[in-house]
Amino acid sequence: MSHPIQAAKFLEDKSNAKWHDETLWFVRDKRDTSSKGIPEWENLRELASSIKDNVLSNLDSYLVEFEKNAIKNGIKIHWAKDAEEHNQIVLSILKEKDCKAIVKSKSILTEECHLNPYLEENGVEVVDTDLGERIVQFLNQPPSHIVLPAIHLKKEHISEIFHEKLQTEKGNNDPYYLTQAARKHLREKFLAAKVAITGVNFGVAETGEFVVCTNEGNADMGVHLADTHIACMGIEKLIPKREHLGVFLRLLARSATGQSITNYNSHFRSPSEGKEIHIILLDNGRTKQLGREKFRNSLKCIRCGACMNTCPIYRRSGGYSYDSVVPGPIGSILSPGIDLKKHSSLPFASTLCGSCSDVCPVKINIHEQLYEWRQEITKAQSSINAKSIAMKIANGIFSTPYAYKLSGQIMRGSLKILPESVTYSNLNTWGKERDLPELPKQSFKDWYKNNGNE
Amino acid sequence: MSLNKKVGLFIPCYVDQFYPKVAIATLELLRKLGCEVSYPMNQTCCGQPMANAGYERDTVATTQHFLDTFESYDYIVCPSGSCVHHVRDHAPSIEGKENNQKDIQQRVYELTEFITDILKITDIKGSYPHRVGFHSSCHGQRGLRLASSSELNQPVFNKAKELLANFEGLEWVELSRKDECCGFGGTFAVTEEALSIQMGKDRLQDHISKEAEIIIGGDMSCIMHLSGIASRNKQSIQFKHIAEVLNEAML
């Protein structure tokens, strides 16, 4: 279903839509306060953007360096060209360990690969341990936001879910009570899992280590209790040096939630004795995106979600309206590269207001890429559809002054003489909930002819 | 003052057709400020609606026409941030004319930035005894940087406010969301109609709840959308383009 249809559906429940907008605006507002507490904020963004430019331009050598150092540290490296290969690698490790139940901390990459359903089909129980992700997992839903997976749900709704799944008291909406219930439930899962899966926020090429950021400590809890840690990592997640973390960690938490630092920034370098760490490096379309000159810097994204919180469209249409693993502005420039046809309405789900580009901690020109995707999409669509013909006619009109003048007169004339029922019918989408301007007797051009000279 | 330079008045096509009073106010204002202004009769549209809809490649002839029309002017001034942003930053490059095009693009200015940055006037004397809310168009604000952006950690500025602030009696309303989009967005207004309307209603509410009498904007496209919603819902708030206000209030 296209974005406009989903958005209209989301807006039907007016009070919920308002609440969603205000909740995410609150996060954006916290981000503003926090980012403005750092005088060098704009320099940090510039620095982060330049570091990522360097990474993207030298990705091949950084990957080799990262692999070499990680292997030296005793980590096992796997390369996956696509989601299928990624999932097969995970399953083969689980089979080798004879593991039937795993815990997983938040990883949008595993969402991208649809790892959960794949493992479940193969008889493995997957428990998402991030609280928000666990909630949406109970509902069999994907996350609606990459940082705040259950942001579309109110506490009353979560109370109902927990009552059904965790037998909490009916009608008890106290967040503390509900969190404690989740904690107890997850504790059992942590203790039972032999293998833990995490995502990766940053891979450091010079040391072969990687960093995982969570607020709940759930990645650490899973990893420390398990014998095997599988870290799933997109190949674009590299940074050259450890010292660069000082740039990215400061930007990430502030941009994501307005915190000065994420609660847990855990560095994983080598496995403890008797344990194993595996890293799966996934391409899945990333090198293709790297080869698209206009879109390559979308790969700088550090998944902070700030563009979602700031986006007036996302806030009023919800994450699911995008029907894409990564929703919001950044999703709308990443997803068309993966499936242009399926996601063709997303680059148009924007007014090109530019707030996403200004909020982005790594300075991705998101709104300009939305504009560029529009050009690609209309090219890919049949060149004889109605809209393209209209555009060709328009170009003809606007390059010919006489034709423009004539069409203007017809336009003003017909608006004047058409009955309201035609102008304001459903055929005229503009007029559904908006009045047209009062029409002037003459255009400026006509006025200027008689009155324009001093 | 006299600028001694030829200013070409660039009027957006929908302003020409729907809001001639805004174009007239722009012309009168620039003349009062001492500019030698004329309106090249051959101008049409800058091509933005087509380009933003994904048909930039179909605007080559339109862009070529724009360049031919305005080539001879020292400055090209337009009462729309959005159209200027398109001409400067998005119009397709015309083969074989790239340098000439760049040169012309650098001479295109939005009205308020032309007054503050080129004419270097920020102290227009006048009186405007009204409580006003200002709607920054996104293309003017984030595209042309006519005002600071709330996302950025930068000194706060607003070229329109610089011009309006000196008017006697004018009360400037601070909005809760300083620079949220109104939801017009060109074809977005019809392709994403439900969202567009909701965004417009929210924007209006911010101004109305702060008891603004008049919403002043730098882009009539945003104003056409907002005033259309207000009028349908019988909201009595008024709307003006900044050119009208400056022209009216200036002594």
What does this molecule look like?
The complex is a heterodimer of chains A (454) and B (251). In chain A, strands 1-10-7-4-2-3 form a six-stranded parallel β-sheet, with helices on both faces. In chain A, strands 8-5-6-9 form a four-stranded mixed β-sheet. With 454 residues, chain A is an alpha/beta fold. Among the domains of chain A are: 38-284, Rossmann fold, CATH 3.40.50.10420; 387-451, no CATH class. The model of chain A has no long low-confidence stretch (mean pLDDT 92). In chain A, helix 2 packs antiparallel against helix 12 (245-256), helix 9 packs across helix 10 and helix 16 packs parallel to helix 18 (366-380). Chain A has 22 helices and ten strands. Chain A is 52% helix and 10% strand. Chain B has 251 residues and is of the alpha/beta class. Chain B has two domains: 6-118, no CATH class; 131-249, Rossmann fold, CATH 3.40.50. Helix content of chain B is 47%, strand content 12%. Chain B is built from 13 helices and eight strands. Chain B has a four-stranded parallel β-sheet with strand order 2-1-3-4, with helices on both faces. A four-stranded parallel β-sheet of chain B has the order 6-5-7-8. Chains A and B meet through helix 1, helix 2, helix 15, helix 17 and helix 18 of A and helix 1, helix 2, helix 3, helix 4 and helix 8 of B. Chain B: It comes from Belliella aquatica. Chain B: Residues 7-87, 132-226 form the Cysteine-rich domain. Chain B: InterPro entries: Cys_rich_dom. Chain B: Pfam families: CCG.
Condensed summary:
Chain A is of the alpha/beta class. Chain A is 52% helix and 10% strand. In chain A, helix 2 runs antiparallel to helix 12, helix 9 crosses helix 10 and helix 16 (328-338) runs parallel beside helix 18 (366-380).
